[in-house]
Amino acid sequence: MNPTPGQDAITEYRRAKIASIILRKPRITQRQIVTALSDPDNGDPLFNPETGREFSVATVCRDIKAIKREWRKQRNEDVDGFLAVELAKIDEAEAAAWNEDPPNQAALVALFRHRSKLLGLEYGKRPKLPPAPASVPPVDADEQSNLDETLEAMSLDELRALVNGDTIPE
């Protein structure tokens, strides 16, 4: 059964009121939310238009799930937007570092590390990816130190190949 536009509006209004109640009282129970919706002290009392009674706990439970799903979606979109902006800034800084004469190797290494950190690919940490056939152990402090030294000792051609995902020249 598809909801009518009027039912959609009622559902959205009810969910907005429930979200407001949850934000004001994070530990409130679903039963208390049902009571709060019909309480005139909380603004306009809201009753089920089909029955004229309080909404059911099951309805409030479904609404809370929908509200949290929407909040999670918005949070993920906010994080994705932030990452996109930050990665674009890194791309611009990287282009500027490559265009210096000679290219700024220290800046390129720092930008490579910053991009890796933003993408969750920091040294010693595993990214949250689906399980791979072979397990890759995290990098320990000695290996990280060796990796840092290797990155700093690389030529510009080697860094360019590493950044572009190409084979590093011998």
Number of helices: 6
Number of β-strand runs: 0
Q: What is the strand content?
A: under 5%
Helical residue percent? 55-70%
Oligomer: single chain
Radius of gyration: 27 Å
| Overall number of structural domains | 2
Structural overview:
- With 170 residues, the chain is mainly α.
- The chain has 2 domains: 5-73, no CATH class; 100-164, no CATH class.
- Helix content is 64%, strand content 0%.
- It has 6 helices and no strands.
- It has helices at 5-24, 30-38, 57-99, 105-118, 141-153, 156-164.
- Helix 1 packs across helix 3 (57-99) and helix 3 runs antiparallel to helix 4.
- The mean pLDDT is 83.
Task: Please provide a brief summary of the model.
This protein is an all-alpha fold and 170 residues long.
List the SSEs and their pairings.
Elements: H1 5-24, H2 30-38, H3 57-99, H4 105-118, H5 141-153, H6 156-164
Helix pairs in contact: 1-3, 3-4
List keywords for this structure.
about 170 residues, mainly alpha, about 65% helix
